[in-house]
Amino acid sequence: DELAAALPMPLDYDNDVNLVAVAEQKLGAAEEHEDFVLLWNEEGIGAALVIGGRLHRGRTGGAGEVGFLPVPGAPLERRPARTNSGGFQELAGANAVLRLARELGLEYDRDARMKDAAAELLARAALAASGSGSDAAGPEAGTPDADSGAYGELLRRTATGVAVGLASLVAMLDPQLIVLSGGVHTAGGEPLRALVRAELTELAVPRPQLVLGTVTEHPVLNGALQSALATARDEVFDTAR
Hints:
Layout: H1 2-6, H2 16-27, E1 36-41, E2 45-51, E3 54-55, H3 80-83, H4 87-92, H5 94-104, H6 114-129, H7 149-173, E4 177-181, H8 183-203, E5 209-212, H9 219-236
Parallel strand pairs: 1-4, 4-5
Antiparallel strand pairs: 1-2, 2-3
Helix pairs in contact: 2-9, 5-6, 5-7, 6-7, 6-8, 7-8
Family: Belongs to the ROK (NagC/XylR) family.
Pfam family, one: ROK
InterPro entries: ATPase_NBD, ROK
């Protein structure tokens, strides 16, 4: 409020994941979609919910904080606001990728930022899986072979974790589209997307389209720019004043 009062123009703000959803809706994979979920995975895992063409923020602005969602396969986190973590984060976030890598004996840069190390591991896994697709491995052509070594196991278990959390969102929202975004998901690429899709088909009744985000360069900034342009257009062309 103090910053808004000090500036000579209107000020608005939003969280990073919501802005990425704006970018995808205006410029990327969610164009022409009125109902979609964007699942973001970097340092933390979160979602943006677009319903009827509009972002749903909830009463307190916390809609989409799905990292706190209790999910099967993860310890039950009590008082998640204090621990700043939750079941879905522990099952499918960047920290979960690194934990799986350690279990599987895969090396990574322990000094790198968590999201960067997780992305590097999944990029290696996607590369290892890219030549092992087969129609028999899953319901979609190109689904990686789950037996393609430690990297294949990393990819498969990561995809399962993502799908478990998404199954709850799909059951509640029945979206037209799910967009996987953020550096961790992007690094896994098409092999990860195909495995998540195969797992989600087994776990949920609705079957929304599942795609990778296409606004990968500065998605938060692009979303902020699109929001600002929309506000400016409303101000300039408001004929009610």
